[in-house]
# Entry
Amino acid sequence: MTQKKKSPKAAGAAPKSPKKTGKFDKAAAARRVQEILPLLQKAYPNVGIALHFGNPLELLIATILSAQCTDARVNVVTKDLFKKYRSAADWAGAELQQIEQDIKSCGFYHNKAVSIRGAAQKILDEFRGKVPATMEELVTLPGVGRKTANCVLGNAYGRPAIMCDTHVIRLSRRLQLSANSDPVKLEFDLADIVPKPEWTLFCHRLIAHGRAVCKARKPDCPNCPIAKCCPAADNPNLW
Ligand code: SF4
# Structure
């Protein structure tokens, strides 16, 4: 006798996400953003970048150092570093091995040292020693991609910028704001549905929410201030 197959639902399988079914509703995502914005604003009124910096060059360096490293560790390292290297000329004129030694505890120190010195040299040669303030120019610097460029634009220059870090990627998918987890595609998806003046703070608030409540492994859905807007509430692995 052949046994009747159980349906996935009866077998307790998780329902398929729109990503898997190919049905992503951009209009609904835009409406969801409008609902989420005031809730996040209320929950996280005072947000900003955790990296310490005093000028655009310092933020650029700190952001390069923060790859695969905690912001807290970068802040410890840059406290002395920014007293030693005060300008693009200081970085460009330093020995690579010395920079490596100075940033060693941030990890990936060889690649980061090459990027920092290369970026400083280009800033000196082509931008008169000043970190450029446009995306087009910033991404021409060695070791600087859109994520780093957005970080500098949004936080050092006060321009609207979408920073797709790991928290923004995870939360955007759980909140079904995009079907993409590629940071560049996600950046353009969010740019379409988040009002431009809100870009930078919206990302900071998503990051704060990702750190405090919507954690990667164990999101606290019962205590989440935006749960009523979240398609993944109580089922965060759906996305
Ligand atoms: S309801 Fe849960 S999955 Fe949705 S944003 Fe809140 S914590 Fe994250």
User: Anything to note?
Assistant: Confidence is low (pLDDT under 50) at residues 1-16. Residues 174-175, 213-214, 219-221, 224, 226-227, 230, 232-233, 236 surround iron/sulfur cluster (CB under 6 Å). The radius of gyration is 21 Å.
